[in-house]
Amino acid sequence: MIPSLPGLVLTALWAGLSSADQRALGGRQIHQPVVAAVIAGVILGSPERALLVGLWFQLVWIAPTPVGGRILPDTGATAVSAAVIAASVPGGLGLMAALVVGLLVAAVSIPWERALRKGNERREERALASQDPRLLRRAILSGITGPFLRGALCAGAAGAIALALRDWPAAPFRGPGETIIRTPILLLAAALIAAMTLLPRVRQESGRSVFAWVVCGLLLGLGGRLLWHQVGP
Amino acid sequence: MTRAIRLFARGFLLEACFNAKGQQRGGAAWALSPAREGFGSQAFNANPSVAGYALGLAAQVEGDDFARHRSALTSTLGSLGDRILFTCVRPLAVVSSLVVAAVHPIAAAISLLIVYNAIELPLRYRSAVRGLSGLTAVLADLSKEGLPRWTKPFARATGLALGLSAGFWIPAIHGSVGASDLAGALVALGAGGLVLRGRHDQTWAGPIGALLVAVMGILCAGALRAVLR
Q1: Are A27 and B48 inside 8 Å of each other by CB?
Q2: Dihedral-angle region of residue B40 (phi above 0 means left; psi in -120 to 50 means alpha; beta otherwise)
Q3: Is there a contact between A155 and A84 (Cβ–Cβ < 8 Å)?
Q4: Which member of A61, A176, A225 has the closest CB to residue B167?
Q5: Most CB atoms within 10 A, among A84, A150, B1, B100?
Q6: Taking the CB of residue A43, how many other CB atoms lie within 10 A of it?
Q7: What is the value of pTM for the model shown?
C-alpha cells in the first residue's frame, strides 16, 4: 500500500515520540518495538505486517538493560522505520527490507545517542554552573528534542526508501529467500534468543522453581490454544 | 500531596539530559527545583522508577539525610529498580502481550502498556511519597520486607507468562510448516543455542544470532528435503 504524505508525516511524529520515550520522557514503553510498530502500522493501514516486524525486534531485544554505561539501540525508531517498510512494500521483499532497514537504524542510533549525550553534558554543566533555571529548562527541552528529531528523521528516511522500493517486483526471491518468508523460522529463532535471555534472569530472581511456573504456563497456553480453536475467530 | 505529585510529575524528565558525566544530575536538579537549587555537582544515577526515594529525601528542607546516605541510596535504588523493572516487570508486560497478539495487533500494544504502567506508575508515585516522608519510610521500603520481596512473585509471573506464550503459539506452527522445515528449524535452534550460550546478553547477539539461526534452519531444511527425496 503506497503511504500517503499525511500518513508518513504522522508516522514520523510517532517515531519521534517513541524515540524520546526510551530515555527522555520517562519510559511509558511506547518505544517497545511491538507498540511502536503496531501504531505505525495502524497509521499506514497495515497493522498485521507491522506487528510481524515489531515482534521480531521485540523478541531479539526482549529485555535490554542499560548497565555499565551501555548505550542501547533506539528501539522505537527501529521498529517504526521497519514498520514503514513492511506496511508500504508488499510481499517478501517488504518484510526482509524492513528487517534490514530496522537493523541499520538501530546501528546508527547508538553513535547518534552518544553525540546527543555529549551535547546534554555541555548544556547541563552550563545550566548548573550559572544556577539559571531558564538554562536548565532549555537543557531539558534540548534533551527531549534530540531523540525526537532522531526518530522522526529515521522514519522519514524509511519512508523515502519505501517509496523507492514500491515499484520493485513484489517477489524477487525464490528458493531459500522464499522459504525464509513462508516459514516462521525467523520468529522461532528470535523466540529462542528471547527465551535464552529471559530464563537465566528470572531464574536468578526466583530460583529453580521458575521452571515449574514455565511448565504451568505452557500447559495453560496449550489449553488456551485448544479453546481458541473452538471459540476464536 | 501537592509536593509528591509535583515530584512524581517532574520525575518523568529525570533522564531528559542524561549524559556520561553528570548522568541524571540535570534531571534531578529540575525535579527538585526551586526547592534545592544547590543539589550539588556530583553525578546522580538511580533507576528512574524508584529515584523518588532519593529525590524525596533530597527535597527535605531540614536535615541532610540525602547527603549522608547518597551513594548507598543511589546504588541500592539502581540495583533494586533494575531487578524489579528491567528483569521482571518489563519482560512480563512484553511476554503477556504476545498472547494477546492473537486477538488483534492493537490489543497486544495496549496490553503491554497497561501491564507495565499499572505496576510502574504506582511504584513511581509511592517512591515520591515515601521519599518525602523521610529516611525511616525510605529504609522501611528498601528493607527485605519491603520492595525486594516483590522480585520473586514478579519473576514467577514472568516465567508463567513465558510458558503461556510458548504453549499458545508453538502449536500454531502446525500446518504452516512442513516436516523437513520443522526438523531443520529444531536442528538450527539446538546448534544456535550452543553457539549463543553466554553471548546472548550482548546487544547485537540477539538480532545477529536470530538471523544466523534462521539461515542455518533454512539450509538444514533444504538439506533434509534433498536427502529425503
Answers
A1: yes
A2: left
A3: yes
A4: A225
A5: A84
A6: 24
A7: 0.90
